[in-house]
Amino acid sequence: MGRRAIVTGAAGDLGAAVANRLAEQGDRVVLADTDEAGLSKVLASLPGGGHRTVRLDVSDEAAVAALAESLNKDGEGLAALFNNAGVNGATIPIADHPLDDFRRTFEVNVFGNFLIQKHMLPILAQAGNSWVVNTASEAGTRANARRGCYAATKAAVIQLTRAVALEYASQGMRVNCLCPGPIEGRFMERSEAGFPDPKAIREIIEAGSALGRYAMADEIAQHVRYLLTDAPPYLTGSVQLIDGCRR
Q1: What is the pTM assigned to this prediction?
Q2: What CATH code would you report for 4-181+217-241?
Q3: Which of 74, 155, 167, 215 is most buried (CB neighbours < 10 A)?
Q4: Could you tell me which residues come within 8 angstroms of residue 117 by beta carbon, excluding any fewer than 6 positions away?
Q5: 39 near 53, Cβ under 8 Å?
Q6: What is the per-residue pLDDT across 200-227, written as a single tens digit (0 to 9) for each?
Q7: Which residue in the list 150, 168, 226, 234 is annotated as catalytic?
Q8: Is 226 labeled as catalytic in the residue annotation?
């Protein structure tokens, strides 16, 4: 029987691709998201068995704590976490950004990331050889106009990752941060829609990559699987930029 892993944001393109990669190698995956219909589709597509879904808003501490308690009580342990849930936030100049959207983006992308780690890290530590990948973004390393809120949340995730890596290194846990560039799919479509000319902004973004295109979700998922399975013990607290060599 393979390891148990949890993937948050599992109904999204990247979360689903990572869940599939983990399932292919025999891991039993807990799929967490607010999109129950999307979770059902992902679950039906996974190879192997022992997978399950849970509806979870990562910004709801009571719900996160309840999930952690259930994972801890059943005795199956937890060896890998892909802490991936996130929202776009409004694509809008800072001076026009509504406070409620700014706050909600931080609640999911930063507080949610924190809450998942807060409640899952003690269970992961019991494994003695465990792996965490937090999803940030290349936007966390370089800000973009109209995307200041999103960039700020992802910069916070990068520093939170490094702090957790320092705290848990002695317990055999590798904690790394994924910073992908644009990925083909619904997330980027929503971001593009916030610009006056979505087609034009996509062309600009693509031109800014040495590869001249968006990544496919599975291309990023291959790297996540490596970070959750094969990465050497010395690789922890790292910021893994995988952006097609953005200029």
Answers
A1: 0.97
A2: 3.40.50.720
A3: 215
A4: 81, 83, 132, 134, 160, 164
A5: yes
A6: 999 999 999 999 999 999 999 999 999 9
A7: 150
A8: no
